[in-house]
Amino acid sequence: MDRGYWISLYLLQWNANCVGSSPLSSSIHTSSKVGLSVVLPCAVTSHLDHPPHIQWQTVQDSVFERMGEEQFQGEAYKHRADVPEAILVQGNCSLFLQDVRFSDAGIYKSYLVVDESSFQNRIFIQSVHLSVVDHKSTKYVETGKDLTLDLYTNQAQLVIFQNSNDTAWTVVWERDGDKNNKCHLSNNKLTFKSVTASSAGMYKVLDSEGLALSTVKVLITEPVREPQILERKAVLGKATMSTPFLKIIITFLTFHLVLPFN
After folding, report:
1. Do the Cβ atoms of 177 and 125 come closer than 8 Å?
2. Among candidates 154, 42, 176, 55, which has minimal Cα distance to 98?
């Protein structure tokens, strides 16, 4: 993930959400659509060591830990979680989480670890409740054009389809299945070539657990043909010529053109 993206995402949430360290801090609620990135806000203004030692945990798992350049990622968060060192030294201990999964939903707690003589003390900073939701959208596609579905994430394993005139669901794409000549996958975007009227209906993108990452309602429209365009222009022209305003203009011009010869 581009470093500039992370910093931009951080700046959007920093002023609105970050709080100072306090054991009485209320839980913050935030949400993300599955497959996207999210920032769980956190700020510490006291007991700030250089470099600070920060831990993020859920009830079940250790999520992420950083002390300077040293870091630890929980097994379920490998290559997805980070507290960037560049902003941590400024007191921002926000957790950056990529490729959000439904299983990521829950309560996250951040702690500042402080060395006090011969033992370490953990100071609670912030609790964040993360909700994860699916994507829903509607697409309009002309007959003969391509339909592109955004899978959003590598978690997508299956696409199923229900025709507008049917109740049954059929598999139209599998990540590890046989190649389908009617569709093409690139950068987590699935393209179906030259759709027809029978392509109208509901498409669901599922993960390995059978959960819907996205639901797309597809409506197929007929392209406007050139003769139809010309016919519409002709009708519009006739309508324009019959307007009272145009009649007034014609009368006015006729009067002034004829008058000098009288």
Report:
1. no
2. 154
- CA 22, CA 139: separation in Å to the nearest integer? 47
| Helix runs in 19-94, H state only | 85-88
What pLDDT, on a 0 to 100 scale, did the predictor assign at position 33?
Answer: 98
Q: How far apart (Å, rounded) are the C-alpha atoms in residues 80 and 252?
A: 75
**Helices marked H in the chain:** 3-17, 85-88, 226-241, 244-258
d(CA 193, CA 165): 21
User: How far, in Å, CA of 49 to CA of 113, rounded?
Assistant: 9
Tell me which H or E stretch contains 216.
strand 212-221
Token digits of residue 41: 């806000």
- For 116, list phi and psi in degrees, rounded to 5: -125, 105
Tell whether the torsion through CA atoms of 195, 196, 197 and 201 is positive or negative: negative
pTM, two decimals, is 0.73
